[in-house]
Write a structure and sequence with these properties.
This protein is α+β, with helices and mostly antiparallel strands. It is about 30% helix and about 15% strand. This is HIT family protein.
Length: about 140
């Protein structure tokens, strides 16, 4: 895809700060560096989001994550945690429409990054409503 910035990075048409690359994925620093070491893991195959993954691509991409996460932990001994984020579609804050996974190292509670789940709508649902939601999903898992 010629207008995709991540495809251009993968094809070395524009520079990046690569931290890992093999035949299936490329990992490089996110230029925003939300925290030191903020890394993106990108499949080399252009897919827009997680909804376009098949089992093979999912295995290829997700099997590399622990290796890169451990490298971050080894490189930054002061790292106290790690957020793994994957935004899918614009409403969910995806801004580059080539699937990618953020690994965001955490150093302190004051490292200027926050992820909080502020709403607990489950407390307002009955057991029947929750079971209905679970059933709707279960019926589609293998459909």
């Amino acid at each position: 895809m010629t207008d995709c910035i991540f495809c251009r990075l993968i094809n070395k048409e524009i520079p990046s700060y690569k931290v890992y690359e093999d035949e299936k994925v490329c990992a490089f620093l996110d230029l925003t560096q939300v925290t030191k070491g903020h890394t993106l893991i990108v499949p080399k195959q252009h897919v827009q989001d997680i909804f376009e993954y098949d089992e093979t691509l999912a295995a290829d991409v997700f099997s590399r994550i622990p290796k890169i996460a451990r490298a971050l932990e080894a490189a930054f001994p002061d790292m106290a945690g790690l957020n793994m984020i994957n935004n899918n579609k614009e409403l969910a804050y995806q801004s580059v429409f080539h699937s990618h996974i953020h690994l965001i190292p955490r150093y302190t509670k004051d490292d200027d990054f926050s992820m909080q789940f502020l709403n607990n709508h489950g407390k307002d649902m009955s057991e029947e409503e929750l079971e209905s939601i679970a059933t709707q999903i279960r019926e589609k898992v293998d459909a």
